[in-house]
Design goal:
single chain, alpha/beta, eight-stranded parallel barrel, 8 helices
Length: 227
């Protein structure tokens, strides 16, 4: 299947160092995973970039709750994107919906343009849309580089069949990053079932992930990639 990518979702510097030592390909950095992730602080971004040496993608999410944002909140997101660019992140992670649950294509497109040349991931707000197939076309239209999804289900194994269809629909137009309940015990099976090549997880079910946790995940995925 070729090279498999593993991105660690981290909220501490220690997790970022574990990502580095365990062989992860990149980091999605956030704060408050208990809130499903919020925008990380200046200090956390700086230390993660310096100490991990990996591409760091910063989450741009100004508050918890839903993903329908006011003009004032979008203005905050714009400033956070500019700040992250100055700090040297490799990418940003965001997701904006309209009141009917569909992708806010216009606002997302503006943020993507502002973020360039950074990479942009549309996060799991995608899974709350009424039609994942249409949402995928909408996200592609925004210019995002990838979309993070569990296939609209509570975890990736439940969504495996939907994920396989999304991977096929996406083709080479956008990267499907599979995440949400990813475990070392299901990673290899999930990779084979979905044919995805990009995977995302926090590995934090027992606390802060260790380098061995990351290494085990990377080995599971790369064994499928080499097959």
């Amino acid at each position: 299947m070729g090279k498999m990518i593993f991105e660690l979702c981290a909220e501490t510097v220690g997790a970022c160092v574990a990502a580095r030592d365990g062989g992860a390909d990149r980091i999605e950095l956030c704060s408050a995973l208990s809130e499903d992730g919020l925008t990380p602080s200046h200090g956390l971004l700086h230390e993660a970039i310096v100490k991990s040496g990996l591409p760091v993608h910063g989450l741009v999410r100004p508050r918890g709750g839903g993903f329908v944002y006011s003009d004032d909140e979008i203005a905050v997101m714009e400033q956070d994107i500019l700040h992250m660019r100055q700090l040297g992140v490799a990418g940003v992670v965001l997701g904006l919906l309209k009141s009917d649950g569909t992708v806010d294509v216009d606002a997302t497109r503006r943020l993507v343009a502002l973020a360039r040349p950074l990479q942009v991931t549309f996060h799991r707000a995608f899974d709350e849309t009424p039609s994942l197939e249409q949402a995928l076309e909408d996200v592609i239209a925004t210019g995002c580089d990838r979309v993070l999804t569990s296939g609209g289900c509570a975890d990736v194994m439940q969504g495996a069949d939907v994920l396989a269809r999304l991977v096929a629909q996406a083709g080479d137009r956008i990267e499907i990053a599979v995440g949400g309940g990813l475990r070392t015990t299901n990673a290899a099976e999930l990779a084979m079932r979905t044919r995805a090549k990009s995977f995302h997880g926090s590995l934090s079910w027992d606390g802060v992930p260790t380098a061995q946790d990351v290494r085990s995940m990377v080995e599971q995925l790369r064994s499928v990639g080499a097959a």
